[in-house]
Amino acid sequence: MKIKIAYWTCQAAGWGFYTVVGISMAAQQVGWRFSMIAGYILFGLYSIALTDLLRREIRRRQWLNAPTFTFARLFGAALALAAIQTFLVFAIDLAFNQGHSMVFSRPSYIPVTWISVSGADSIWLLFYVALTAGRRYREKEVRLQLALREAELRALEAQINPHFLFNCLNSIRALVIENPPLARDMLTRFATILRYNLHRNLNHTVPLEAEVDVVSDYLALESIRLEDRLRVRFAIDPEAGKIAIPPMLLQTLVENAVKHGIAALPNGGDLVIRAAINGDSLRVDVENTGSISGPTTGSTQVGLSNTRERLRILYGNNAQLDLQNGDGRVIATVIIPRAV
Amino acid sequence: MKALIVDDERLARLELRRLLAEHPEVEVAGEVRGGEEALSMMPQLAPDLLFLDIQMPGMTGFELLEHLEDLPQVIFTTAYDEYAIKAFEINALDYLLKPIVPARLAAALARVRPRSDRGRLEQVFVRDGERCWIVRIPDIFLLESEGNYTRVYFGAERPLIRRSLNALQEQLDPACFFGLGGKKSSISNGLTK
């Protein structure tokens, strides 16, 4: 609505100004003649109508969209529009004044009018292109801000699974009597995980090895819960451990593998976490026994698509996350660029 | 009162056993790791009370209940399950959050009624998408046959259960329900809404 009001105000002001200047200049030459003033006012009105038609046409044909945009085409449109306006000016003059029309008395006015109206139309188009581009740029900025905020919120949601936290506390409560030293060890690990979750800053990255430490604590806790159902193996290249990753990236994948992969199997399975440097990027694989065709596929996909979105915002097209399924195993692979 | 513990985690079962030691009226007749084991143990153990975890590998707690023909009293035990808890709050089923608060366990046990009449169905478990109910038989005012399924009318709800009307009828008190319309496609307890 605001944009519409601004547009019509600009139209009225621009063509009104052109008309007023035109009338005052013509009055000096031919005096304050009614037919001249009426002609100019009519000119202002149909110019508004014609440029508005041009605007609609530009929008319909999407001339301002990046791949098809050319100034030449717009200039051509300005010349064509000016030709129509010039034709109208002299046609109306002819209808009003007949034998005394400028068409006969001053034929040189025809090209002069066409050129000056072309100039006016070109200025009109320049304004239109500049203002539209400005508005689109601001809209894009707002959209980007919104996408970022959304991603931050999603990352906040990527906190450690509360189901795990409470199950863990319950297991520790049982262990306090059965195996006090193990219970104490588990409580310390529990504290580490909680601290990592509470203190992490989503805008910063962490070295992969720092997250691997937290993931090992997490897996140790899951192991007391799942006991011999969870068998873990790490293969982290020491160089790869130094690469910066977004916090909770590995944790999310490992949690997914445990929750939807191994915990869903009555006899459990193996979990392998591999990380290596591959050229200019870091490759992390999280492999678990199981298949994605299980009944909990939906929530797995949601978790993965959140992670994928986060990677896209952080690294653009330079990062990827794939999920492969086959041979009784599921492998989640993340590739992110090495930080410079 | 005989109880069966169904939970995939050994430590969780151990913890519940310890808590139940404070309640001599509850005899833990057995513990199983999941739905399949529970199904095979149930006929022989005939527990009055089921302590049931919801998230288990293979068969969830809800799926187990759908498979049970004769439903004992159920107390759900869960660590954190937004959906399940929402379902319970609507229907006021009993649930305990792990780690279990001893006072909450005592309160839940106080509400458990020992079974009076063996062989008679006292309640049914009904699931309709995300929502679920344990419906006491006296609260049902109409059962309607739909092929191999039966539509259960209670309160303002009318979900389907995966059992035929004939199979259900065999377990119901014949004095409480009577056939409607001669077609034997629905039975009512004579109460209106």
SSE map:
The complex is a heterodimer of chains A (340) and B (193).
Chain A: H1 2-30, H2 34-60, H3 71-97, H4 102-105, H5 109-157, H6 162-178, H7 180-199, E1 206-207, H8 208-226, E2 230-236, E3 244-245, H9 249-262, E4 269-278, E5 281-289, H10 297-315, E6 320-326, E7 329-337
Parallel strand pairs in A: 2-4
Antiparallel strand pairs in A: 1-3, 4-5, 5-7, 6-7
Chain B: E1 2-6, H1 10-20, E2 27-32, H2 35-45, E3 49-53, H3 61-67, E4 73-78, H4 82-91, E5 95-97, H5 102-111, E6 123-128, E7 131-136, E8 140-146, E9 149-154, E10 160-161, H6 165-171, E11 178-179, E12 186-188
Parallel strand pairs in B: 1-2, 1-3, 3-4, 4-5
Antiparallel strand pairs in B: 6-7, 8-9, 8-12, 9-10, 11-12
Helix pairs in contact in B: 2-3
Offer a concise description of the structure.
Chain A is of the alpha+beta class and 340 residues long. Chain A has helices at residues 2-30, 34-60, 71-97, 102-105, 109-157, 162-178, 180-199, 208-226, 249-262, 297-315; strands spanning 206-207, 230-236, 244-245, 269-278, 281-289, 320-326, 329-337. The longest helix of chain A has 49 residues, at 109-157.
Strand content of chain B: 25-35%
Q: Could you give the distance between the termini of chain B?
A: 34 Å
| Subunit arrangement of the protein | heterodimer
SS summary, helix count of chain A? 10
Uncertain parts of chain A: none
The domain tally of chain A reads: 2
Global outline of chain A: rod-shaped
Question: What's the main sheet of chain B like?
Answer: 5 strands, parallel
Pattern of helices and strands of chain A: HHHHHHHEHEEHEEHEE
Measured distance between first and last alpha carbons of chain A? 46 Å
Q: SSE string of chain B, helix = H, strand = E?
A: EHEHEHEHEHEEEEEHEE
Shape of chain B: globular
Main β-sheet description of chain A: 5 strands, mixed
SSE-based structural type of chain B = alpha/beta
What name goes with the CATH superfamily of the largest domain in chain A? Histidine kinase-like ATPase, C-terminal domain
Named at the architecture level, the CATH assignment of the largest domain in chain A is 2-Layer Sandwich
Helix content of chain A: 55-70%
Mind telling me the CATH superfamily name of the largest domain in chain B? Response regulator
